[in-house]
Design a protein that fits this description.
The complex is a heterodimer. By secondary structure, chain A is α/β, with parallel strands linked by helices. Chain A has helices at about 5-15, 25-40, 55-60, 85-100, 100-110, 110-120, 125-140, 155-170, 170-180, 190-205, 205-220, 220-235, 250-265, 290-295, 300-330, 350-360; strands at about 15-20, 45-50, 70, 80-85, 145-150, 240-245, 270-280, 335-340. Chain A has one domain (about 5-170, about 225-285, about 320-360): Rossmann fold (3-Layer(aba) Sandwich). Chain B is about 55% helix and about 10% strand.
Chain lengths: ~350, ~300
């Protein structure tokens, strides 16, 4: 492992861990287990989760959205805190912080178009996850922030999101609309006027009015948002930050994970560790084909069934290793950590401890 | 959850009983075409399976839909092709979609409705977005009726809602795994969809159930004696460990499947776990067999 830090080193030394990967691969559980291990190592750790399963949320004391971390008591030398991302209130705070006057902030918060942004604009959840990460890193004295990322099919959504949103808010169409003296009806450019009228015809004038009012209210804040987006991006590419890729050994999720690793690489971000959840166990050192052949000759007997069963699991384990091999190469020299299929669903600290025992 | 595997299987099963089937993908990059041994899909329709043959099979065709392309189609069909390119390239669609949430979903579902109405297809199978987004996706029509009160989008939303809530035309097939969290999510989703969207739910598909194998409950030594075979050293332990793993996991799976049946009074269809881990044409045929066997056994009312 030519000098590549282990997952334990990352947990004990980095300031930020970002767990990323496709949906349903156990990112939330991995993030929580990593934060727990940091707390056991004496660090003050906080995990930001996006959408934990209800029982895990309950176990972590995340019954309601509070927007601020709550402390989880337990038998560890450090501290473990957890926080469930509330996209809307995070965005509200960001608007208030960037507004020139409290009135401007209020005007935006009350706008219907703005209220849709947190629910409807793609990338907003990703953006807010990164914003929360930045805020926790800057404004608090946590030693480690572990962030779970929203399940996304587009690998770069959460890296791109801050910039994409600031581009959106900077939209030239709306710069034009909001320029003084050039209201929607007074647009000098005839083509633009016709364009907007057509859009209004399709979606209704009310909808356009809301949007125009929002961009007018937002005027002057683009700069602040852009600077913040750049700061968040720099933090993500910083040496204190490590990206942990989480996958499951199925062919399709492995393909997605490879795509993910490639995209991260293009953004000059290296994957520092790969966690593969739900690996099937390996039984014996025989080959599936040989075991299956033996099962076939014994077909109809209980022993044949026992060999059939063994062949199934030998086959699945070898296939999983094959799928994994290419991904391991793609993220090298990052270590690959395998977590076996657990016989329980993880929804308490004991469960997290078991996951962690496989991670580190 | 294996949503795409189930989509591919449903389409293949439908074609096997003679229905001409169109699969619609909305999230891209799903691997559906690979399961049919074909190259990835795009916005133009591709034939995944030709149909015909002695059994009078239907064909399976497939395509993807994206909001941008659906919007272009929509504008073209409504005499607004001149602005359509600009609306997409300027990014104004994002602005409009934010102003009226659900508009992208309506564009997609509107296109689905159009394809359904176009004829030539007996069954449309839509591989809808995953759990959390599924409700918003299907609820978009209702929500949009409140935001956009007049005009063509309003009309589109009405048509879509009519399609979704007509139980003769449209059913939602929910897919889950025999595990605790997916089962919980499925139950939540089911009630939300019925209450908030008014869609009709079809049978639930539980994907990835271990098939039972005879003999896994028997001690390897006993089984060997009965079969008149000898085991190599250490082999009994390996066989026993593998057998125990299957029994334990099967028991856990059954527990979850039973719990699902208790909490959700819908028929269940179970698809087996595929140990080769990859679904290609042969696996798809096996899965379609299993689905058809179970559908045949369902009571007529479902």
């Amino acid at each position: 492992m030519a000098g590549a830090p282990t997952l334990r080193t990352l947990v004990e030394q980095r300031r930020i861990l970002v767990c990323c990967g496709s949906g349903g691969v156990g990112k939330t559980t991995a993030a929580a287990a990593l934060a727990l291990e940091a707390a056991r190592a004496g660090r003050r750790a906080v995990v930001v989760t996006i959408d934990p399963a209800k029982r895990l949320a309950d176990a972590l004391g995340l019954a309601g959205l509070t927007g601020s971390p709550s402390k989880i008591e337990g038998d560890w030398s450090g501290e473990l805190w957890a926080l469930m991302l509330d996209t809307k209130s995070t965005f509200d705070e960001l608007v208030v912080a960037n507004a020139a006057t409290p009135e401007q902030g209020q005007r935006i918060l009350e706008n219907r178009f703005y209220r849709n942004i947190s629910g409807a604009l793609s990338g907003t959840q990703e953006y807010m996850a990164m914003e929360k990460l930045y805020e926790l890193h800057q404004q608090t004295d946590f030693d480690l922030v572990v962030v779970d990322t929203p399940p996304t099919r587009n690998a770069l959504d959460f890296i791109d999101a801050p910039r994409r949103l600031s581009r959106f808010l900077d939209h030239r169409l709306f710069r034009m609309i909001t320029s003084p003296g050039r209201g929607i009806v007074k647009a000098v450019n005839v083509a633009t006027q016709a364009f907007l009228r057509t859009v209004a015809k399709v979606v209704g004038a009310e909808v356009i009015d809301d949007a125009v009012a929002f961009f007018q209210a937002f005027e002057g804040m683009e700069q602040g948002f852009r600077e913040r987006a750049d700061a968040v991006f720099h933090l993500l590419s910083d040496d204190d930050t490590a990206f942990v890729l989480v996958a499951s050994p199925r062919r399709d999720t492995i393909d997605e994970a490879r795509f993910f690793a490639k995209k991260l690489g293009e953004a000059d971000i290296s994957v520092r560790a790969l966690i593969v959840n739900r690996m099937h166990p390996t039984f014996g050192d025989g080959l599936a084909e040989a075991t299956a052949a033996r099962a076939a000759t014994l077909e109809g007997t209980d022993l044949g069934g026992l060999y059939r069963n063994l062949a199934d699991f030998q086959l699945v384990a070898s296939r999983e290793e094959e799928h994994l091999a290419g991904l391991a190469d793609a993220v090298a020299p990052a270590p690959v950590v395998r977590v076996p299929y657990l016989s329980i669903d993880v929804h308490d600290v004991d469960g997290l401890t078991e996951v962690a025992s496989h991670l580190l | 959850m294996g949503k795409t595997v189930v989509t591919a299987t449903l389409a293949r099963a439908a074609a096997r009983v003679g229905l001409s089937t169109l699969v619609i993908e909305v999230e891209g990059k799903s691997g559906l075409a690979t399961m049919y041994g074909r190259s990835p899909l795009d916005y133009t329709e591709a034939t995944l399976h030709p149909g015909g043959g002695t059994g009078g099979e239907g064909e399976v065709r497939a395509r993807t839909l994206t909001p941008d392309e659906a919007l272009l189609d929509y504008l073209r069909e409504h005499g607004m092709s001149r602005i359509s390119k600009r609306l997409v390239s300027s990014g104004a669609l994002d602005v409009v979609a934010t102003a009226a949430p659900g508009i992208k979903d309506i564009l997609i579902l509107g296109k689905v409705k159009q394809l359904e109405r176009a004829g030539g297809t007996d069954l449309v199978v839509l591989d809808a977005p995953a759990a959390g987004h599924a409700i918003t996706f299907l609820q978009a029509a209702r929500a949009l009726l409140d935001t956009v009160r007049v005009g063509p989008i309003n009309a589109q939303a009405r048509d879509v809602l009519e399609m979704l809530t007509d139980h003769e035309r449209c059913r939602v097939v929910l897919v889950t795994l025999p595990e605790e969290t997916p089962v919980n999510e499925l139950v939540d989703t089911a009630f939300n969809l019925e209450d908030r969207v008014g869609v009709g739910l079809g049978p639930v598909v539980v994907n990835g159930c271990y098939d039972s194998v005879a003999g896994v409950g028997v001690e390897p030594e006993t089984a060997a004696t009965e079969a008149g075979a000898t085991l190599r050293e250490g082999e009994a332990d390996v066989l026993r460990a593998a057998a125990r793993f299957r029994s334990d996991r099967t028991a856990l799976q059954n527990e979850q499947v039973d719990r699902l049946a208790e909490q959700l009074p819908l028929a269940q269809l179970r698809l087996p776990f595929v140990f080769t881990t990859e679904i290609g044409p042969p696996e798809l045929e096996l899965l379609a067999d299993r689905l058809l066997e179970q559908i045949d056994a369902l009571p007529e009312a479902v």
